[in-house]
Each structure stands twice: as C-alpha cells, then as structure tokens.
What does this fold into?
Amino acid sequence: DDAIVSRFQEYLRINTVQPNPEYYKAVDFIISQAKPLSLESQTIEFVKGKPLLLLKWVGSDPTLPAFLLNSHTDVVPFEDSKWTHHPLQAHMDHHGDIYARGSQDMKCVGMQYLEAIRKLQASGFKPLRSVYLSFVPDEEIGGHDGAEKFAESQLFKSLNIAIVLDEGLPSPTESYRVFYGERSPWWLVIKAKGPPGHGAKLYDNSAMENLLKSIESIRRFRASQFDLLKAGGIAEGDVVSVNMAFLKAGTPSPTGFVMNLQPSEAEAGFDIRVPPSVDAEALERRLVEEWAPAARNMSFEFKQKLTGKQFLTAADDSNPWWGLLENAVKEAGGRTSKPEIFPASTDARYFRKAGVPAFGFSPISNTPSLLHDHNEYLGKAEYLKGIEVYVSIIKAYASYESKSGSRDEL
Ligand SMILES: CSCC[C@H](NC=O)C(=O)O
Ligand SMILES: [Zn+2]
Ligand SMILES: [Zn+2]
It folds into this structure.
C-alpha cells in the first residue's frame, strides 16, 4: 500500500497547473508506470505541446468493441498561501489525508485506473475486450485541444469504443455519485454602450445604467433558480446556475478610476450552466430580449458554449454498461446513488457528442467535494478502496461478452 500511495503522490507533485502545465513530465511519468504492465502506448499531439497519451491493454477478442477510461492530466491553479500544506507537495497528514491539487480532480482516477490494471494482471486476469486509457490535456480550459479533438478524430472512431468512463464528483455520503449527462456551459459576456458624460449629470441610457438593468434582470433569474434548489426536491444539475465571473468598466487613472466621468462602455461576464431538461432556446431568447437587448445598446458574446443538443447516456436496463457498473461497484462493497446530471462540465460531453455513451464516476465516498477549492485532499483509505472498485469495474467490462454496443440517445 505504501508503494501505491507513493506513486499517487509522485503524480500529484508534477506541476500540471493551468495555464502552463508541464504535460510532458506527466506523460513521461505515466509511461514509466505503464511499462511494467506491457501496455501499448502512443502519444498524440492534436495540438503542439499538448500531448494526449493513449494506452491499450489488448483484449483476446478483437471483434468486441473496447472501452475507454479517460482522465485529464491538467489541474486548476491554487492560492498556495491559503492551503494548510503546499498543493504540489502531496503531503499526507496523520489521518492519512493527502493534500494536493488534483487529489480529487482527477489525478486520483488516472492513477487508480493503472493501479487496478496492475492488480488485475497480478491476479492473472486476461481481458476479453481491449481496455484503452487516455490521459488528456486541457480539460480545465475547455478540452478543445484535448478530448474534443480526440473524440472527433478518425483515430477515436477506429478504436471502436462502446463505453467511456470519465470523472465524477466525491460524495459526502457512503454511496458513490454517478453522472449520465451534464449541464451545458455558457460563458457569457454582455456589453453595454452609452454616451459618456459628466459624473454629476443625471441622464438615461449610460453604459453603466444599461448594464445594471441587465444585471438586475439576470440576478432575478438567478434567485428564481436558486429558490427552486433551496426548496428541495430538485438536484443541483437540474436547475440553471448563474454566477457573475467579472465586471469590467470605468476609466483607469493613476490612483484607481476617474470618478467624475460616466464611461461609454461596460461589460460583465457570467458562468451559466444549462441543464438538458431546460429549453435552451427559450433561455437564449431571454438573453436577447432581456439581458442584452440591442434596443438598450447591448450586445453579447459566448466565450464557451457547447453547440448542438445535449446527449444523455441511458442509466437503466436499456444500457448493459449501466447494470455492469452498478453491479461491479456492489461487488467491490460499494453503492451507487441515483444517476445525476453533472453540474459542471467534463470531457465526457465530447465522447457523448461523438455518439459513445459515457458515465462520470470518481470512486470517492465520505469525502467533501473540494474540486477547485483550497485544501483539496483525498484520504489514503478512500484512494485504495477506489482502486478495488476499478478492479471490479474493469473486470466486469473487460469480461462482458455481448457484441451489442449501445448508442447515446437524447
Ligand atoms: C466549460 S469548459 C471548463 C470545464 C470545467 N471543468 C471542470 O471544472 C468547468 O468549468 O466545468
Ligand atoms: Zn476534472
Ligand atoms: Zn476541474
């Protein structure tokens, strides 16, 4: 167990922090881990300097579709002064909790896949289907140069993947969370224009006034969604979330901002997440009519938006991979809770869009969700238990004999 934990810590110590991740260090490390497992390996640069590592454990029946275990190698930035232990040190405290950026999101999962394969090989297990592992770059900044290009590639098609597993979220309770779809990310910037003027003058249609009207309207909508959530009976992934990311306006001066000049431009940015169950067209109409109406001298732009429809992976008897997953977790002594819509975004959306079903799953129970937060940590025991869960899942998936795949549906 000590060696297993040390290998996890070693991966966590590699600086793959956005916006300057040392991708090749991570890839070299994973390759060194894969060597003793005799996995086939290829490194693909869809974009220069952003390697995607693809590993393959060859199954004995090449006529069966394979499955893919995906993880991203990058992590989000941190404010190290706000952490109890430095986020790149992967310090394990006396409770056995390992503190590091990526300990939950999602270097844990990437290493657990490999450790599970190591254990299966040691036990003499031979896969019937091929198992692919992808270690992809750039998930945290949208995945466009990583999983998106991969999922759209000829290479991906040629792998004949029937099901993808990707990241989920830690569960504060005993049962693991599983995700079968995601909210669609809308990173929205609204801009207002208006005549400038003296700071002492009251007049209509200034950029600031125009922007504030929109912000008030957006806040009312946010409150209505938050109220639904607070009232209970509805999950996080089933309401629209709206949060202001930035406000930008004013005329800079050496001491701050000019105080007696009403600026001619002002803008605000919002992180909005739209559930598949919500009428996105109606929401976009609201945006055009109420949040950024041209009549009020406003315009808008999306910095990020998933185009097209949102695909859902069946999490019922119609999808054999669902039952296999549920059962495998059970056999490992765990439990899955009711499948949910992922509240944020993961690379799984690109695989689903390519027509391949995908589940979001991180085997982390009894742990607060600290993704992107200070003091992200994972307990050693939870990490080790997660490896056993993957042993069980990989065994079940790799042994599944049926030729039938399953395609995604809306
Ligand atoms: C919308 S692209 C950014 C992806 C990112 N994923 C995880 O946190 C997220 O903010 O959901
Ligand atoms: Zn992640
Ligand atoms: Zn993340």
Observations:
- Residues 207-231 form the longest helix (25 residues).
- Residues 406-410 have pLDDT under 50 and may be disordered.
